[in-house]
Amino acid sequence: MTVLPDDGLSLAAEFPDANLEQWHGLVAGVLRKSGKEVSGTAAEDALSTALEDGLRTRPLYTAHDAAPDPGFPGFAPFVRGARAEGNTTGGWDVRQRHAVADNAAVLGDLENGVTSLWLVAGEGGIPVASLGKVLDGVYLDLAPVALDAGNQVASAAQELLRLYDERGIDRKAARGSLGADPLGHQARTGEASDFAPVVPLALRCADEYPGLRALTVDALPYHEAGGSAAQELGASIATGVAYLRELTEAGLSVEQACAQLEFRYAATADQFLTIAKLRAARRLWARVAEVCGAPGAGAQAQHAVVSPVMMTRRDPWVNMLRATIATLAAGVGGADAVTVLPFDHALGLPDAFARRIARNTSTILVEESHLSRVIDPAGGSWYVERLTDELAEAAWRFFRTIERDGGQAAVLRSGRLRTDLATTWAQRSKKLATRREPVTGVSEFPFLSEKPVVRETAPEQPAGGLPRVRRDEAYEDLRARSDAHLAATGSRPRVFLAAIGPAAAHTARTTFAANLFQAGGIEPVTEGTFEESGATEVCLCSSDALYEERAEDVVRTLKAEGARHVFLAGRPGQYSGVDSYVFAGCDAVAVLTATLDRMGVS
Fold this sequence. Notes:
There is one protein chain. The chain is α/β, with parallel strands linked by helices. Helices cover about 45% and strands about 10% of the residues. The chain is built from 21 helices and 15 strands. The strands form three sheets. It has an eight-stranded parallel β-barrel with strand order 3-4-5-6-7-8-9-10, surrounded by eight helices. The protein has a five-stranded parallel beta sheet with strand order 12-11-13-14-15, sandwiched between helices. The protein has a two-stranded antiparallel ribbon with strand order 1-2. Helix 11 packs parallel to helix 12 (about 320-330), helix 12 packs parallel to helix 13 and helix 17 (about 475-490) packs parallel to helix 21. The longest helix is centred in the middle third of the chain and has 23 residues, at about 380-405. The mean pLDDT is about 95.
């Protein structure tokens, strides 16, 4: 809405209002210059971006892009926040993850900005018997603790509750989560879920510990298996519904049962999708509470975690940027607690510097950027509201298919969920392979001579269920082959870049080819001659015009000098002697794999 100045003068009064049709015409004119003949809504479609789950991001959103009323913060459907005050009183809960018994690291985090602890206990984590040692010196009435103990949740929970009593903590002052998640454990390990140990914990929390939640609905297993945002949401809602059924059958009311659940979601560097995902999650859970007869109990408690899938092992410093964007999105999206994974998370146990950067990420966003001072700052954006609505609809459809097939436990047992997630990941893998989804430092702008970052090996995580995928995995395999070749021979596999013509003609494609080959650990050689390079394969780099004039002659010369395979940087053409082409959108992983195979790099 335009607010007129006090004198009533509107600077736009003399100009006619623009309309969508005029904008379509202007867009069509620009596209026409690039060779695309489109008009009307097709012009807008040409600038749209396809997302997963059948969603599309359009280039322009207006007031006509209606979405359901998101309501107010703290009121159903809780799209704008679970609490009326949001995170304005002190920012979001900065929750740091710890998987080893290191009391000094725990105290260091709490002394420097961390406000709660996420402790991985049991298999692949802190021994249950060591929880007291790990929490030595921790003010348990001030620092909430969230457990993640897998099939040892009963013993871990009992140990934590014993510590509360031993240290004289008022049971009403205890905060956090006992972390019971039988279906999440089944998703991780393939072991059948057992809800029996969870019921007594939930009943005890509901009766004696009002600030403790007994269960965590962890959506990370589905995200880490390659699932889309809608699949992650749908699986989490199906899990939450399964837990509601168990808890109400055990004697809790719907309101009491809802109060026992905390939901954990991944936050990625796709900031708007993450914002929309967290908002959609609250709307979905509010709908579940509504149909269960308790609309006021649908305020979803959310714990957002920086996505492990996007954390890279090569050039891990870039992970700081990814984590910052993800943390911003989680905060803007209204998460109650946020865990920033250290930038070296994918390499092993984080060091003190990495933990410091992780906790300071939230501190800077809250204390210096003041992100938490506005409740739901993205609310009201036509784009964000529409994306929230479309994502919620897609997630609800996926949730209904799970319920139709017997519920979350049933689709985990049958393998249906695994198949769905694998299909989504296969489609995304194609984008990664063709670099339509670039990974900075890995598939784009790799740095072959970087000094490796070495960390102590982290405990083995539970396995046997859904796979854990990473965006960098295909390129990491290629780089590992190159590293092994370097260790065995003293040099990396090489490709000679044959630049044709002046710099103005070849620089763009020389840069492109160098980036492409380095993504597979292949060293590009640009100086000297082909014979001096020590390479057996070569890539021509120049303009289309010079290719027409000189490409075939250059190819003949290079093959006479011993070149076994000749690439041409550019769209496929009819050049005699050229063996293959590399271009924007080609399958980089396939090209690089075949190249290393020909070079004998095992």
